[in-house]
Amino acid sequence: MFFSMLSEAWHAMGANRLRTFLTMLGMVIGVSAVVLMMAIGEGAQQAIKKSIDSMGSNLFVILSGSSSTSGSRTGSGNSSALNINDANAIGELDDIAMIAPISTGNAQIIYAGNNWNTVIIGTAPSYFSIRGWNVDSGNLFTETDIRSANRVALIGKTVVENLFGDDVDPIGKTIRIKKSPFMVLGVLEAKGQSFDGRDQDDTIIVPITTAQRKLFGNQIPGSVRMIMAQAKSEKYMETAENAINELIRQRHNIRENTESDFSIRNLTAMAKTASDTARTMSMLLGAIASISLLVGGIGIMNIMLVSVTERTREIGIRMAIGAREKDILLQFLLEACVISIVGCIIGVGLGLGGALMVKKMAGAEILISMQSIALAFSVAASVGVFFGYYPASKAAKLHPIEALRYQ
Amino acid sequence: MINNVIEISGLYKDYDTVAGVFPVLKDVNLTISEGDYVAIMGPSGSGKSTFMNILGCLDRPTQGEYKLDHQSIKSLNGNELAKLRNKTIGFVFQGFNLLSRSTLLDNVSLPLVYANDSKMLRDEKSKKLLEKVGLGQYLNSKPNQISGGQEQRVAIARALINQPRIILADEPTGNLDSKTSEEIMSLFNTLNKEGITIIIVTHENDIADHASRQIRFLDGRIVDDRRNQKFEEIY
Known about the structure:
The complex is a heterodimer. Chain A is of the alpha+beta class. Chain A is 56% helix and 18% strand. Chain A has a six-stranded mixed beta barrel. Chain A has a two-stranded antiparallel sheet with strand order 2-3. The mean pLDDT of chain A is 85. Helices cover 35% and strands 29% of the residues of chain B. In chain B, the strands form two sheets. Chain B has a six-stranded mixed beta sheet with strand order 6-7-8-3-9-10, with helices on both faces. Chain B has a four-stranded antiparallel beta sheet with strand order 2-1-4-5, covered by helices on one side.
């Protein structure tokens, strides 16, 4: 019974091919738009999630404030307000799990005939745990290297590519940073882009003591450019921020109502903003695409209403030879569903094709999830049932005699 | 013993129109026994088509009793009426009322779809019936590829497919020429001889003469009900 009705629905669609095709087109466009938009939106979210994960979680960065020399002010991080003791004091706070003092600067590096300019990060071994960063090959430096200010370096993937090329194994080689020789201890694993778009692999990490004494020479001893601190977990973020603020103000003898000589950045909050933005964007894209799905559904309803009117006599004949109300209902409902489901299959295909094309041509990250396809499918099926139901019930409720007399 | 397949008593049918309630059938009483061959005659507007629709369970009376095969249809719901139309009654219309998009085979087997028969069984039964009405070579033709007389044969085959007790034919020869009409009527005669009760609405005397009983409607009432002498002579 169901199958003969299904085959009838199929034939009824074939009876007016152009019209069926145009009706279906609405569905095809709607579904492919949803699939494509969701692929792009989820891809963007995925990309942001990746860079957030690469950053490390529950992070604060404490930057020293700007300094001003004869009226010209520098950016934050340029005064020498923070020092290694501040860092250690923060590390003593209850809500803080780990800290890493950081000094950074740019430097020219040389290996054999190649040279490259990159960011040098001077820090402590705790930095690697905070950021969840490990070496791909070789070893991380240790507290010993910090204490004796050894000239050892860990280099990022981008630096390896530019300095060594593909053929040379950098481990154990000596590179020159600002002309002083450093031994390469390890190659850091790839982190990719940060959520603000920087290449995190274009960097060299050295012990902070080495950096301070041998690379960025003329600094006040013990001063650091920034301190990275990790809260014990997400729920300590707020209290930790207040505690850090109070502690450093106290240590720096800053009176009330006076501006701090440092600033605290909540990296996790920034990352959350970025990911919220991406989610909002992808929801917006989805919502716009859903509207076209809705329009497609209305198109189906429209055509089904026309079809019911056109086939009034046929409905009368069917009733006269024994069709029940539910048979007529099922017949027209099936037709609407077949149109929307076939449209959906084509739409999913087009959407996936479009997504792959976007990936290839624009290089944008896309993510095709089974969920989004399942969602598009179930939405399409329910659109068929929802918009097909009214015309179908209109057909089923026709009076047999009036339907038979209809010209 | 004669089985009264149709029993009607005190039947009224009113139509609600803008001008008010319009009575179409007034106090109709009629009994038709199984195997009878009845012609219902009367001028247009006399109520014979309305009466036919009620007989065919396509419409319900406003008042009065209609028993089909000893069962009062008043107590039946839409699905049960549909089942009667499907199994007990076969309809033949003036305009044939075939589905133009479907093949003859599919047209004939359509009632079986609603009776839930399998595709194989449907095709087998339909093929047999189309052969019986002489259209065995047109199984996969469409209705617009055959003549009017042939279309009406298809419609009769469709009416017969569920082996109904009663055939209701509303002006079955109204769209046909006299020669084809004769062919269709002789088909009805054959079916009647096989024991099927046949009720034909017509306004042509030649056609009515094929029936064994003639009933005449006027202004919503039965004004004449007699056995047909010619029928006895012919058969």
